[in-house]
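**Sequence, structure tokens**
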Amino acid sequence: MSKIRITKQFSFETGHALYGYDGKCKNVHGHSYRLYVTVIGTPIADSNNVKFGMVIDFGDLKKIVKEEIVDVFDHATVFNKNTPHVDLAKELQARDHNVLLVDYQPTSEMMVIDFAEKIKQRLPNNIKLHSLRLSETASSFAEWFASDNE
């Protein structure tokens, strides 16, 4: 049977700051992110299976991405834990703000790499992550493709 790609779109609001950057993004600011998750697989051929004809149930994909990405990053502020922003992060956390400290500069490029690793670990063995697109504005996005990372 043919391989089919399916895509689900997600959205979340996240703040961040790029320590050491030479432009406006050194300041704490936020984006309305859109994440497009594309997986590839063969539709289920067993007509007795309740998911007959599906590569993966969109609801199952939604559960994975919500738990790993959306519920974690939505309305959080992300800082690289290896920068002086840690002091600001601690202050915000003390005031009950949702802060994420990550091992990378929180650019769209690095976030999409992080997201790919998290999603790949949760997919069933017969389903592969094909690509991710993370848009931080209406005209700017980063993409990750499995074929580029083999």
